[in-house]
Amino acid sequence: MNFTRWSARLPRTQRRIAARADRGARRPKPAAAAGGGSVPAARGESADPAGRGEPPAAAPSDVAPPAAVPTLDGLSAHDLLGQVPALVAVVYGPEHRIAYLNDTYVGLFGSRTPGTPAGQALPELRELGLLPLMDQVLRSGKPRTVKSRRVPAGGPATTPGPRQEGAAPGPGRSRHGYYTFTCSPIEMTAPKAIAPAQAADDRAAEADLDGTPVDGTPVDGSPVDGSPVVGSIREGVVRKAVAVPDAVATETVVADTGPATEPVRGVLVFGADVTDQVESAERLRASERLQREAAVTLQRSLLPQGLEQPDDLRVAATYQPGGTDAAVGGDWYDVITLGAGRTALVIGDVMGRGVRAAAVMGQLRTAVRAYARLDLPPHEVLQLLDGLAAEIDPHQIATCVYAVHDPNENRLVYASAGHLPILVRDPDGTVRRASEPTGPPLGTGGWLHTTGSVPLGPGASAVLYTDGLVERRDKDIYDGVAALERVFAGATGSPQVMCDRLIRALGITAEHDDDVAVLVLQHPARTGHDAELFHNAALELLGGVEAAPRARAFASGVLASWRFPMELRDLGVLAASELVANSLQHGTPPMRLRLRRTDRRLIIEVTDGDEHLPRRRRAEPVDEAGRGISIVATIASSWGSRRTPGGGKAVWCEFALPAG
């Protein structure tokens, strides 16, 4: 394809061609060489534009003479500093005597007499903490800066002291302001002490040179009382700007001053008004503080207001949000009573910060409680949570540990979704990690979680925690886990005391940069009177017509030995009979009847080899069966069923023990 043929028709091509032509028209044309040796066509010109045989017109001059470039030689320091919209003060000598104050400074703090020490005439500098800073600048010769010093409304940052005679107070600010002060070292010239007659002659000579009146008042406002001259004669050279039409010429006149001046070291104090910036930063911090408080309030309202206390465990938890500079995260914990003495313990962490993370955390915690009511195995609960987390927010992930304690098995069965390992301490003080198995965080999808278990017998303790407890920016996270193991091995006391000790020992303070959640559980070893309140009894049922009478007789004898009231004993025997009858009719061997008492309830549980879970239904008047579960649900405080890990099911009911 001939691209040249189509290029003129492409978009914006004609505009680019026109722009190049316009630039070519504005570009100056080179003058024709003498002798006419150049070719007009090569320069885009026509030797005879009109075709009338007339000679071409003379080209205009190439470049116009440049305008006059101004210089700063004629601008005095007084004029320059006087127009700056900032506080400017010039002091000299070890006593920081006043050499110059600009109009902005005078308008805020009032006028001062030149030559007066700043410690007496400028009390605002002392209250702003600038006098020691000026001493450092004068000694080191290096500038120093202090930021955002507050000047209250109505005047300086101090109670006005006695002023020098002739000094007038300034109007001050209508509202408080903030200034950033920079103290810079400078070098000025000061006139030496000379005879009065010679001084008059010198002033007359200067008047002839630069227009200064004979009375000694300089045009640029320089003092004549011996103070250093700011922006005036230096090294005996006076520069005057002379305006010319095409340029600015500088005429230099050398004055025969000789040793009449000497250098003096001083300090230039420059105060920039940063009130708007400081107030904007304060508003931003206030907004962030309100958002953080809202997130913390939401976070705490979504956490359990009071932990459920199981019969067989002692549980305590603590939550500490990140420091004031850190946004709140999505850490959470929970304790859920499942029934039949079993307890679910949950801890998790939503990645991210702020209200959004707290909201996702609240939804996940609510879902965990709902799934826990189904009495599913831990890995199935996490499987359901994984799908829900992806639906709530596909860009959020969360880690979680879901564990279940069964007092009949004295084990902690758990599943982990990318969370840190549970630590278990045996009665002898040995600490073990329950680190396997684990899967990816919730919300990633495509993973089948599995369940593991770890012994948790009487006298053992366990701790569940989030990464804020052990993670540090300068260390590996598993170094923090190892440190937690060492601290946990020596921690004693109640679960709440252990929580506080773990937080304190690992250096968690109010300024910590991450949320921390800790959940501690203990399985106490009971002795004496407490041991009398916890009993277990079990009967293996082989089936047949004699199974139900054997179960009733066993239940009646056990409940009588536990000295229960007659009414509770009769209800317990009836419930055991109905559960066994239901298992005999719908279940398969092996079957077992288990009776268990705690200090607060009586638990009756029947297990068999069939996985079909019973459900309560409304029995019709003509039905001869189907009323057993309804009877149990009516007389018991609660009832439920679940599938057992080895296959089969367990059906249970509970009776609350009378107080006392």
UniProtKB/TrEMBL annotation:
Keyword Hydrolase: yes
Alphabetized SMART domains for the sequence: PP2C_SIG
Keywords attached to this entry: Hydrolase
Residue ranges of the region described as Disordered: 1-70, 141-176, 197-230
Compositionally biased tracts (Low complexity): 39-70, 152-162
Pfam families for the chain: HATPase_c_2, SpoIIE
InterPro entries per the UniProt record, alphabetical: Bact_Sigma-Reg, HATPase_C_sf, HATPase_dom, PPM-type-like_dom_sf, PPM-type_phosphatase-like_dom
Domain PPM-type phosphatase: 313-523
Biased composition, class Basic residues, residue ranges: 141-150
Protein name: Serine/threonine-protein phosphatase
Organism: Streptomyces javensis
Phylogenetic lineage: Bacteria, Bacillati, Actinomycetota, Actinomycetes, Kitasatosporales
